[in-house]
Specification:
- The complex is a heterodimer of chains A (352) and B (226).
- Chain A folds into two domains: 247 residues, P-loop containing nucleotide triphosphate hydrolases (Rossmann fold); 91 residues, CBS-domain.
- Helix content of chain A is 33%, strand content 24%.
- The two termini of chain A are 30 Å apart.
- Chain B has one domain: MetI-like fold (Orthogonal Bundle), CATH 1.10.3720.10.
- In chain B, helix 2 packs parallel to helix 5.
- Chain B is elongated, with a radius of gyration of 22 Å.
- The model of chain B has no long low-confidence stretch (mean pLDDT 86).
- The chains are: A alpha/beta (352), B mainly alpha (226).
- At the A-B interface, helix 2 and helix 4 of A face helix 6, helix 7 and helix 10 of B.
Chain lengths: 352, 226
């Protein structure tokens, strides 16, 4: 656990970057520091590994003040991922990843094996090991950056806007990769970003900082969206707060109808305006209406119990039937969430 | 003048190694000494000086300003001045050349260290490099291409400038040119020019080779770009 205890950072020119910050980043969780530029989020992060020293207050790493640890030693025990990856251009990928093991004096073979293992772990082709950083794409470099930070298996990982210099598609895949890795590794991660969507997607807890380095709110993403503490946080969260909050509402309890699926256009009750045609394996094919029995209409589906209400609602809006198709892991139809069922669930979500 | 002047090859054959001072071979060795010593001196001085200028920025302007003034001094009066101290010796030629070398190398060293991207330096700090190890393992290797580019200029200009020393009787191969004043006989001039250019080309080639060996990451970059 990382503890900020009344930490203030005042620079020599008098500007206060961080003002009396008290918070905790719990072990095994992702704590995101988010805020506009000038809110002191990067300064806060860098005070943890003493790239910047606090002016007042102290930062504790599992109860030990970081000020009491020699900086190089402290830093070798903390993984660090920087915005442009910061790979060493003159070293091959495998040596880049093995940087901290080398510093710690591991033998070459062990450091190399560890680097190769991590290369695969972050989803890269082992063949890239012998390349130089400039030969990799921005996304690949960032993956190497993550692998390098993990090389000596540090319990703590600091990430300073690691994904903001890559394009949106790559960013999304890197974010998902990080969540997948975190599922396996359970590191204590402090993640800095200016992108509130990224904060909400990745954070177990999100700390919103305001300009001048004051903590505005620290809460789980869901709470942040439903109960912003003041106008600053509300404004920073931006539009669609309600819709975005639905991504934290599970589809598990969603009421499904199983009597709307048919094998062909002739089947099903004539009472129902829409019926869902499924194939032999039980996968959805399309919606069909009595008025146009020859034409299949598009459908939208979600993974029942796994995807959020946001996906379920999105799936409903993709189809003229207004219903959402619930499927299981194998793509078989589990049932259909009608507008009424979605309505009920939304009303429940709105109540909190 | 009974037989007429000897041909170029005859002249070379007769003067290559006469066993006396002033043979082509001797001049070649003198020339090498007087150009290589300043190059080494320049490297040995410019590296720590450049590091100091990067560490203490305020030092860079005065240091590079001073070196530029030194560089601007015409070599002949400098030779004259030094003769009173070091006499008509090789040292008199070596000293100004060494300072010229420093003047060219200093900005190269500073530029090379400045060429280390900030995010690379930051991440080296964050990985837990000690300052000395960061300098040796990260910053200097990344500075090598820029420093070597400066060193190539120093090497070639130093080899070429040694010949000016002929005016005080210490010009290495430049000595072959002064003879032409007294006697309009071309072979020594041709030999002098060819050997000096050849030396410069060889030195430059060796440095290019060193760069390829030391910085494979730069060479590969070119390969990919083309």
């Amino acid at each position: 656990m990382i503890t900020f205890d009344a930490v203030t950072k005042r620079f020599p020119d008098g500007t206060v970057a961080v003002d009396d910050l008290t918070m905790e980043a719990p072990t095994g969780e992702i704590t995101v520091l988010v805020g506009p530029s000038g809110c002191g989020k990067t300064t806060s992060l860098r005070m943890i590994n003493r790239m910047i020293d606090a002016s007042e207050g102290q930062i504790l790493l599992d109860g030990v003040p970081v000020q009491s640890i020699d900086p190089p030693t402290l830093r070798r025990g903390i993984g660090y991922v920087i915005q442009q990856a910061g790979l060493f251009p003159h070293r091959k990928i495998v040596d880049n990843i093995a940087t901290v093991p080398h510093l710690l004096g591991w033998d070459r073979k062990k450091a190399r094996d560890r680097a190769m293992e991590l290369l695969e772990r972050v989803g890269l082709d082992p063949e890239l090991a012998g390349r130089y950083p400039f030969q990799l794409s921005g996304g690949q470099q960032q993956r190497v950056g993550v692998a390098r930070a993990l090389a000596a298996d540090p319990p703590v990982l600091l990430m300073d806007e690691p994904f903001s210099a890559v394009d949106p598609v790559v960013r999304t895949s890197l974010q998902e990769e990080l969540l997948r890795l975190q599922d396996e590794l359970n590191k204590t991660i402090v993640f800095v970003t200016h992108d509130i969507d990224e904060a909400i997607k990745l954070g177990d807890r999100v700390a919103v900082l305001r300009v001048g380095g004051r903590l505005a709110q620290l809460a789980a993403p869901k709470t942040l969206l439903s109960e912003p503490s003041d106008d600053f946080v509300r404004e920073f969260l931006g539009h669609d707060r309600g819709i975005r909050r639905l991504q934290f509402v599970s589809t598990e309890g969603l009421r499904l109808r199983t009597d709307l699926t048919v094998r062909d256009a002739a089947g099903g009750s004539s009472e129902e305006p829409w019926r869902l045609v499924v194939d032999e394996q039980g996968g959805p094919v399309g919606w069909i209406s009595w008025s146009r029995p020859d034409e299949l209409e598009p459908f939208g589906s979600f993974l029942y119990g796994r995807d959020s209400m946001r996906s379920a609602l999105d799936a409903a809006l993709l189809s003229p039937s207004g219903c959402s198709v619930a499927v299981d892991d194998e793509g078989k139809v589990v049932g259909v969430a009608t507008r009424e069922a979605l309505d009920e669930a939304l009303a429940e979500a709105a109540d909190g | 003048m009974g037989d007429g002047p000897p041909s170029l090859w005859e002249w070379i054959g007769r003067n290559w190694d006469t066993g006396r001072a002033g043979s082509i071979k001797d001049l070649l060795i003198d020339h090498l000494t007087m150009s290589l010593v300043p190059i080494l001196f320049a490297l040995i001085v410019a590296l720590p000086l450049g590091l100091a200028c990067v560490r203490w920025r305020w030092l860079y302007q005065p240091a590079s300003g001073l070196m530029n003034i030194v560089y601007a001094l015409p070599s002949l009066p400098v030779f004259m001045l030094l003769i009173s101290v070091t006499g008509l010796s090789q040292t008199t030629v070596i000293i100004p050349l060494a300072f010229y070398g420093v003047a060219v190398l200093l900005p190269a060293v500073v530029g090379g260290l400045d060429s280390v991207p900030d995010h690379v330096r930051q991440s080296a700090v964050a990985m837990g490099f000690s300052p000395l190890r960061r300098l040796l393992a990260v910053e200097l290797p990344i500075a090598v291409p820029v420093v070597l580019a400066g060193l190539r200029v120093v090497a070639v200009s130093s080899i070429s400038l040694v010949s000016v020393g002929a005016l005080i009787g210490q010009g290495g191969l430049g000595g072959l040119f002064t003879r032409a004043y007294q006697n309009p006989f071309m072979p020594p001039v041709i030999v002098g020019i060819v050997l000096i250019v050849l030396l410069a080309l060889i030195a430059d080639g060796l440095l290019v080779l060193a760069q390829r060996v030391l910085t494979p990451w730069v060479r590969v970059r070119k390969g990919v770009a083309s």
